[in-house]
Write a structure and sequence with these properties.
Elements (H helix, E strand, L loop, with lengths): L1 H12 L3 H26 L2 H11 E6 L6 E2 L5 E13 L8 H11 L3 H10 L6 E7 L1 H9 L5 E10 L7 H4 L1 E2 L5 E3 H5 L1 H4 L4 E7 L5 E9 L7 E2 L4 H18 L3 E8 L5 E7 L12 H4 L2 H4 L9 H11 L7 E3 L4 E4 L2 E4 L6 E3 H7 L2 H9 L4 H9 L26 H8 L8 H12 L3 E2 L14 E2 L3 H12 L19 E11 L2 E15 L6 E8 L8 H4 L1 H14 L7 H13 L2
Parallel strand pairs: 2-10
Antiparallel strand pairs: 1-8, 2-3, 3-4, 3-5, 6-7, 8-9, 11-12, 11-21, 13-16, 14-15, 17-18, 19-20, 20-21
Length: about 575
């Protein structure tokens, strides 16, 4: 009886239960169908927005930095495309084995790489290795790791390496100038990146370009005044001499007298700008521009020019230098040996401190100071080079006898090798001071007449005796050319006065003396005791560099008899 009751209840439910289930499923299907139609047809923008949010990106198009060339178009700094590897920490889900393979390719420690990604898990972009070679970047992407992608960048290369490093400078890893011309003209050289909208896959790879938003603007090229041939010549000779003499540092500046352009500028110690990891501030400093030193006897030619310009002395005026020493106030001034009565030309040839001091004390206090100021001492050369030093000059003409005397033979002021080279180029240019330029010029600037042409020529003639027999620097002579120059040997300033055994050795001059084309300054900081005089430490470097430069520039010889004698002696030695 119970079984009959259950059967009756079951049979009573069967007619409407299937219909109810069909109705429910039909309603759900209708809702889903309506939602599909709504998303795909009526409101398709929603899905498009969601898809774009996951795969559509705006990426930067890098712009290469402008090239730097020498005056003849030879490359000194160029940019080459490279790839950098980055990850999205939120998507970087890899196994320990995959992490190890990636780290091995990038020459990283797996634990360090994992730690870096973990510490920046809240970010969506993290560089893990910059500036990879294209073939290595392809190997990284071949691993197929999620969240790993490449970013196209440019890396700066310096074909001349250490040879031009102090002038050209270098950029950081983000391609921004850090030193030298790269820093001074960063805004000119740096390009403006573009932008485009792209579609990326789940691995971060670009699979389609959607649209260009902004075209990249490459940086502008820069043509320097440097001649790479002369730069290499100067670098080779200065480096060899610095190593032989064991100097603390050394600088060389070579200027075109007719234009004021810097044709070569080198320093020791040097550095390789292609290896950023080994660059330090001491080696990267362009000492020829940023460091000022007391010029010693190289300044005497300008003291003589001031005396001649003032009309108080003539080239044949005689000065009694006495026994080789004199007292001025509480100071004793000495010559290397007694010269007795000498004329102004001999003062320069023998580099007499006493002669320069007596000459200065016979002049109005402002005469020498004014000449120095006209020549640019005490203020920057105006090249715009980063860190350019002004040097040191008394704020007003000195009135104490000791200060006036010291100023005449190179103490009590400081100057950079570049400023000194510019002043020598002024004498070589018949008293016309032209601005110094690191950029190649299409035509020579007019310049400013700061010294009478007649006085400049008189001083030039007297300077020729310095490199002749009996002068302080016969080793500065150049076969076939007349050379005018001046040595300098200055004790280095130290705490409480001057160091006993630390010197600066100089040679400054120009050639050909009959019609000067090139002016040069060589400075050796703390040469060995055997070499510490300018005529021994710096003059030979001047001779070798000037000889090569005049020939490379096809400057005609102006001392043919000397050249003939040199050729004859060379032939006779075979």
């Amino acid at each position: 009886m119970l079984r009959d009751a259950q059967k009756e209840r079951t049979s009573s439910l069967q007619p409407w239960r299937p219909a109810a289930l069909l109705l429910v499923f039909g309603g759900l299907a209708s809702v889903l169908l309506w939602r599909a139609v709504d998303l795909q047809v009526l409101d398709r923008q929603f899905l498009q927005t969601q898809g774009d949010a996951r795969h559509l990106r705006v990426v930067e198009i890098p712009a290469h930095r402008g090239a730097i060339t020498d005056r003849n178009g030879e490359p000194l700094a160029i940019s080459s495309p490279v790839d950098s590897v980055w990850v999205n920490p939120k998507e970087f889900a890899v196994s320990a084995a995959e992490l190890a393979r990636l780290a091995r390719l990038l020459e990283l420690e797996p634990q360090a790489l994992a730690r870096r990604v973990r510490q920046r898990s809240d970010r969506e972009f993290l560089y893990i290795k910059r500036h990879l070679a294209p073939e290595l970047a392809e190997q990284v992407m071949a691993l197929g790791l999620p969240g790993v992608a490449l970013q196209r960048e440019y890396r700066r290369f310096y074909p001349a390496g250490e040879v031009t490093a102090h002038v050209v400078g270098f950029t950081n890893i983000d391609d921004r100038g850090q030193e030298g011309i790269e820093l001074a003209y960063n805004d000119w050289l740096q390009g403006e990146p573009g932008a485009k909208r792209v579609i990326k896959d789940r691995l971060g790879r670009i699979i389609d370009d959607v649209e260009s938003l902004r075209e990249p603007r490459p940086g502008k090229a820069l043509r320097l005044s440097i001649d790479r041939r002369l730069q290499y010549l100067a670098y080779r000779e200065l480096k060899a001499a610095a190593a032989e003499q064991g100097v603390r540092s050394a600088s060389l500046v070579l200027l075109d007298v007719t234009t004021g352009e810097v044709l070569a500028m080198v320093n020791q110690p040097g550095y390789n700008p292609n290896n950023r990891l080994e660059i330090n501030s001491q080696a990267a400093r362009n000492r020829a521009v940023t460091d000022a030193y007391e010029p010693g006897s190289t300044i005497k030619v300008f003291s003589v020019a001031a005396a001649l310009e003032a009309g108080h002395f003539r080239p044949d005026s005689v000065i009694d230098t006495g026994p080789g020493y004199m007292r001025v106030g509480s100071y004793t001034i000495r010559d290397t040996r007694p010269f007795g009565k000498i004329d102004i030309g001999t003062l320069i040839q023998k580099s007499s401190n006493i002669g320069a001091a007596k000459m200065a004390l016979a002049l109005p206090p402002e005469a020498i100071w004014t000449m120095y100021a006209r020549l640019g001492f005490g203020r920057p050369a105006g090249t715009g080079f980063p860190g350019e030093a002004a040097g040191l000059m008394p704020a007003r003409p000195p009135v104490r006898d000791a200060e006036r005397a010291a100023l005449a033979y190179g103490y009590g002021l400081s100057t950079t090798p570049l400023q000194l080279a510019s002043a020598y180029a002024t004498i070589a240019a018949d008293g016309v001071r032209r601005p110094v330029s690191f950029l190649a010029l299409d035509q020579a600037p007019a310049g400013e007449q700061v010294m009478s042409a007649a006085v400049a020529r008189q001083v030039r003639t007297m300077m020729e005796a310095v490199v002749m027999k009996g002068g302080t620097a016969p080793q500065a002579a150049v076969a076939g050319y007349r050379v005018a120059g001046k040595t300098g040997t200055a004790r280095k300033a130290a705490a409480g006065g001057y160091a006993e055994n630390a010197y600066l050795a100089y040679f400054a001059g120009f050639a050909p003396a009959s019609r000067p084309r090139l002016a040069m300054v060589v400075m050796m900081d703390e040469p060995s005791e055997r070499y510490y005089y300018g005529g021994r430490a710096a003059a030979p470097v001047f001779s070798r560099v000037m000889s090569g430069a005049l020939r490379l520039l096809n400057v005609p010889p102006d001392d043919v008899p000397q050249l003939g004698a040199f050729v004859a002696s060379a032939g006779g030695g075979r």
